[in-house]
Amino acid sequence: TVNITGFSPSSGCVGDTLIITGTGFGIVTNYVAINGMEAQVTSWSDTQIVVTITNINQSGPIFVSNACASTQTTSSNTIIEAYIQLTKSVSNVKLGGVNETAIPGATITYAVYYTNQGCSGVDVLVYDALDQNTSFSNNSMSAPAGWTNQYSTNSSPNQVWNSLDYTSTQPPATQVKWVRWKKPSVATGEAGYIYYKVIIK
After folding, report:
1. What does pTM read for this prediction?
2. Alpha-carbon dihedral 92, 95, 96, 98, rounded to 10 degrees
3. Alpha-carbon distance 118 to 16, whole Å?
4. Residues 44/4, Cβ–Cβ less than 8 Å
5. Residue 101 contacts residue 93 (beta carbons within 8 Å)
6. Could you tell me the pLDDT band of residue 125, with boundaries at 50, 70 and 90?
7. Residue 76 CB: number of other CB atoms within 10 A?
8. Which residues lie below 8 Å from residue 186, measured CB to CB, with a gap of 6+?
9. 153 in Cβ contact with 85 (< 8 Å)
């Protein structure tokens, strides 16, 4: 009888090692598949199999067979692709250079923190609509090197990568309704802040 008792890690990247533990695997290397795709076996014993993840599609149940029997897990291995986490917060609120509450005329600085927690680079678009009770503060968008600042005067702009509803040249501040940043190939582990300011009406 072939029995899988566990595997680790439960998630990872292409190129990572996956260790499958259990009993009855046998001492002769046989067959392992993940999500129906044959896995690259690097070592095999009666109680432990080590495989290398070679394909992004190897997210799914793990299947092990030998000459006598086979078994499959009910839980799945998960391959992490690009995973962008975004957090938006208010950096500060000022009126006349002094910290202030959110009252008409005060400037709010928004900070958006981004990080790629996945296993591969990915093209990223970050966009945000201005609240109807605020107006854009001139020349207030900033981001690390490699990001492109863009603006839209459209109330419902198309958000595709090369959208014609956006421009890199700032229109009059009172006409700005959406802001966005884009960067090709945000690398694994890359993180930083992007900012913009609005004025409370």
Report:
1. 0.67
2. -50
3. 13
4. no
5. yes
6. very high
7. 16
8. 82, 84, 114, 116, 121, 122, 123, 124
9. no
